[in-house]
Amino acid sequence: MSWLPPCANAAAAPERLPANVDRRCGAAGRGKAGLPSTAAMAAASPVTPPRRQRRHGTAVLLATAVFAIAQAAAAPPQRIASLNLCTDSMLFELVDDRRIASVTTLSRDPNLSHFAERAAHRHVNHGAVEEILFTAPDLVIGDRQLAPQTARLLRRLDLPLLQFDHANTFDEYAANLGRLAAAIGAEMQAASILASLHHALGDGPAGVSAAAPRAIIYQPNGYTPGTATLMHDILRHAGLRDIADELGLAFGGFITLEQLIMARPEILIFSARRTSAPSLAEQQLRHPVLRRARALAAPTTVARIPEHLWTCAGLFSVAAIRALEVHAP
Amino acid sequence: MNGSARLGVYGALVLLCLVLFVAALCVGPVPLSPFDLPHLLYARDTEALGLIIYEIRLPRAVLATLVGASLGLSGAALQGLTRNPLAEPGIIGISGCAALCAVIAFYTGFAALNIWTLPAAGMLGALGAVAGLYLLAGSRARIVTLILAGVALNSLAGALTTLVLNLTPNPFAAYEIFFWLMGSLANRSFDHVWMVLPFVSLGGVLLLASGRGLDALSLGDDVALSLGVDLRRLRAYVIVGSALAVGSVVAVSGVIGFVGLVVPHILRPLVHHRPGALLGISALGGAALTLAADLGTRFALSNGELRLGVVTALIGAPFFMHLVVRNRSPR
Fold it and tell me: What is the pLDDT of residue A159?
């Protein structure tokens, strides 16, 4: 397992490592947060047993060492830092705030993050490794798309890193959550979340009927997420036909107002933001043609889904499905 | 230049504008035939295509016409007033300062107060630019001094525009810098047309009214004075007219460069270098160039559009270089 504390490595070449890493690694081995501790580490270390134990011979020494290593392997990381909004979100779902070393600054944005209030009381990072080191985590989690130089630097510093593929469906989210839970010893919480999710989703989308209303998600600048995205999965679960499908958008793309009008959507879905700053990007969503389009022969309904419900997948995303379901037959 | 020749130039330019205007209504993601236009304009409440023509392409074409006419007219008038072939709202910093003030009004939310706030901010910026030019270069600046002052103003306005956008809390700001610095008419609506129409009309009247004065001025200050031209009033007409027309259009379209430079230069020989006669046809020529450039933005890329200012710069910058080379050679 790639995230396992590399104390063995640290012990192998301790001289070359900076002091703070050494300390952090000690914390990882003992499973305690932020212990200052060369002293603590020396006391726990299997490598430097107290002198009086010597006479019991190698057997005892070996037994102590094996026990210590087994304990290190069994104790899950206690302080976790996250480098991605969506891994932030999973972390908030799974663990207490005190186990969160830091989350991304995006998590404090009430528009994007479902956990903005909790994030307000945690350290935040902007993806810089020094910010991560400052909060002394024993596990770092992030997206697969994490900048390679960041991953390389974390490896050099012997900080265990666990990367996740971005979850574009509830299934992928469930897999990610399970994997993170196993790594940090939060299996119980994950099981309970996934049970609730399963209860809410049933056995997945039954296949969208041809009679289902045609919907399109229209975001600032005319961006429409594609069929390989969480938003599409949410539409499917809500029983709506996604126009992105007809337009052949897999990962999303920009749809001009003209293309939007020609697509004749029955449901026009916007992301609702809790705070708003003037922008040309959002001005496009207030173009008079959209108001007029709703009066055309087949009237268009407008639905507004709070952006933080579907930026990242989570149990909370079920609320987006519920809000859209009312438009399905 | 006799009346019929002048009428011929006007007629040709009006025709060109009409053709380009119709093309602007027909070209887009959904192409259509010009023969369907009358029917579709009428059917805007029942057909999606009619709605597109009426609410998206028509305001865009009208705006391109207004923007181009303002820039062409203002360029011709400024060149006449300063007797400087390089005076152009974009080059001497009027457009840049107008964009800066519009950006401040837009992103602070002031522009949402009422529809006049945004064009008012643009006009204020344009007037501020003229004041800045006078402070930097003086009222009787040589060509080089005026251009240098313009470069300085432009750099400052561009930097401040970027700074203001970087400071705004909206996540799209970095992308929107392009709109303000390079201009675009995409997704504009009739709201924007009504926003600028009164100011472009008033500014246009002031600029056109300065024609006789500019003709006299081309013979020298003393001759102009002896012909009874009130120089202070003439200057006020050109400056206020430019500020009204250019300031307001920049507030809704961003900075679109080179139109006011290229158009008067191409048309000048046709009116035998008479600055007064150049005004009207420069307005028409500016409209035609901007309509054509805006059509060009729609052909360029498969994903999204080119910025309008990019197209006009692609046409205008080589032209500007040509002027530089021509000025370099000994006379």
Answer: 93
Instruction: For the beta carbon of residue B226, count every other beta carbon within 10 angstroms.
Output: 11
Contacting B residues, span 117-156, partner chain A, CB-CB under 8 Å: none
Distance from CA of A302 to the nearest CA of B (A): 17
**Amino acid code (one letter) for B210:** S
Distance of CA A235 to the CA centre of its chain: 21
State pLDDT tens for residues B26-76. Answer: 998 888 888 888 888 887 777 888 889 999 999 999 999 999 999 999 999
B304/A254 touch (CB, cutoff 8 Å), yes or no: yes
Of residues A297 and B260, which shows the higher confidence score?
Answer: B260
Q: Is the pLDDT of residue B110 over 80?
A: yes
Distance from CA of B30 to the nearest CA of A (A): 7
Chain A hits for B171, Cβ within 8 Å: 279
Residues of B in contact with A271 (CB under 8 A): none
How many CB pairs below 8 Å do chains A and B form together?
90
Grade residue B213 by pLDDT with cuts at 50, 70 and 90.
Answer: very high
**pLDDT given at position A7:** 33
A93's enclosing H/E stretch is helix A85-94
Check CB contact under 8 Å for B45 and A296.
Answer: yes
Q: Quick check: B56 and A257 CB within 8 A?
A: yes
HEC string of chain B? CCHHHHHHHHHHHHHHHHHHHHHHHHCCCCCCCHHHHHHHHHCCCCCHHHHHHHHHHHHHHHHHHHHHHHHHHHHHHHHHHHCCCCCCCCCCCHHHHHHHHHHHHHHCCHHHCCCCHHHHHHHHHHHHHHHHHHHHHCCCCCHHHHHHHHHHHHHHHHHHHHHHHHHCCCCCHHHHHHHHHHCCCCCCCHHHHHHHHHHHHHHHHHHHHCHHHHHHHCCCHHHHHHCCCCHHHHHHHHHHHHHHHHHHHHHHHCCCCCHHHHHHHHHHHHHCCCHHHHHHHHHHHHHHHHHHHHHHHHHHCCCCCCCHHHHHHHHHHHHHHHHHHHHHCCC
> Does B19 touch chain A if contact means CB atoms closer than 8 Å?
no
C-alpha A197: how far from chain center: 16
Residue with tokens 């016409």: B65
Q: Check if B31 contacts A (Cβ < 8 Å).
A: no
Q: Which of A111, A266, A280 to substitute to test the interface with B, most B CBs within 10 Å?
A: A280
Calculate the alpha carbon distances from B285 to B225, B256, B280 in Å.
31, 15, 9
Q: Does B317 touch chain A (CB under 8 A)?
A: no
Percent of all residues in chain A with a pLDDT value above 90, rounded to a whole number = 56
- On average, the pLDDT of chain A sits at 80
Does A258 sit within 8 Å of B52, measured CB to CB?
Answer: yes
**Number of CB atoms found within 10 A of residue B11's CB:** 11
Question: Per-residue confidence at B281, pLDDT binned at 50, 70, 90?
Answer: very high
A285 min Cα distance to partner chain B (Å): 10
> pLDDT of A26-76, one tens digit each?
333 333 333 333 333 333 333 333 444 444 455 555 555 555 555 555 688
